[in-house]
Amino acid sequence: MDLILWRHAEAEDGFPDAKRALTEKGHKQAARMAQWLQSRLPEDARILVSPATRAQQTATALTKDFSTLEALAPGADAQALIDAAGWPRAGGTVVIVGHQPTLGAVLARILAQGNDSWNVKKGAVWWLANKKRGNSSEAMLKVAISPDLL
Known about the structure:
Layout: E1 2-7, H1 24-38, E2 46-49, H2 53-60, E3 67-68, H3 78-85, E4 93-98, H4 102-112, E5 125-133, E6 136-145
Parallel strand pairs: 1-4, 2-3, 2-4
Antiparallel strand pairs: 1-5, 5-6
Helix pairs in contact: 3-4
């Protein structure tokens, strides 16, 4: 299984939090990352997105064919996100468009079996893979990239 964690791009300040839209820079970040992902994602990748406006707009740069999950909303529990993705047994590729600190907590839990939260830059993608080794499996980082490097 491949799990791609994509933090929403830069958003406006404001209230309510769930309605904050992407800035002009955020739209550009989302477009750059979406272009990078489009040439690498398998056609059957599942895209799961937070209901927050900024996450919806980020995902829309990639496709309109995604599922919105309340379990991915700002403040979501890391384990709820892992469960929604089906990690590590779901198979295929799952893209999650979500928020900090949840994405960072998922990374810490999967890659380091820790309870901390790692920093995920706005608009960045962390691509994880689960590889089977005999009777066990191993999580590995395939790539971590931010839109300013594209």
